User: Which sequence fits this backbone?
């Protein structure tokens, strides 16, 4: 079996701010806000609970789920935990 990939750090936008690269697993917590690199999409985390996250607009995504990121052409998914979850954090992947 292949080892699990480590969560990535944000990339940088042309303006010098952080952004999420499409297709990269990324660890988030409540209050995090990142634009998706090269798109107009923004990921804004409202809360992180055991088994799901809520976006700032109230959209709920269950662990293992993948839905359309509101107001974008991207998808956002909550990566299933391997049992070593850290309370207050979730791992997501955005693909555009």
Assistant:
């Amino acid at each position: 079996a292949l080892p699990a990939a480590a969560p990535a750090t944000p990339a940088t936008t042309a303006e010098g701010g952080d952004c999420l690269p499409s297709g990269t697993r990324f660890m988030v917590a409540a209050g995090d806000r990142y634009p998706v690199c090269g798109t107009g999409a923004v990921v804004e985390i409202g809360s992180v609970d055991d088994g799901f996250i809520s976006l700032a607009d109230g959209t709920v995504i269950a662990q293992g789920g993948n839905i359309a990121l509101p107001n974008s052409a991207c998808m956002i998914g909550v990566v299933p935990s391997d049992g070593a979850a850290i309370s207050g954090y979730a791992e997501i992947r955005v693909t555009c």
Summary: Residues 1-7 have pLDDT under 50 and may be disordered. The longest strand covers residues 42-49. Residues 2 and 82 are 13 Å apart (CA to CA). DSSP finds no helices and ten strands in the chain.
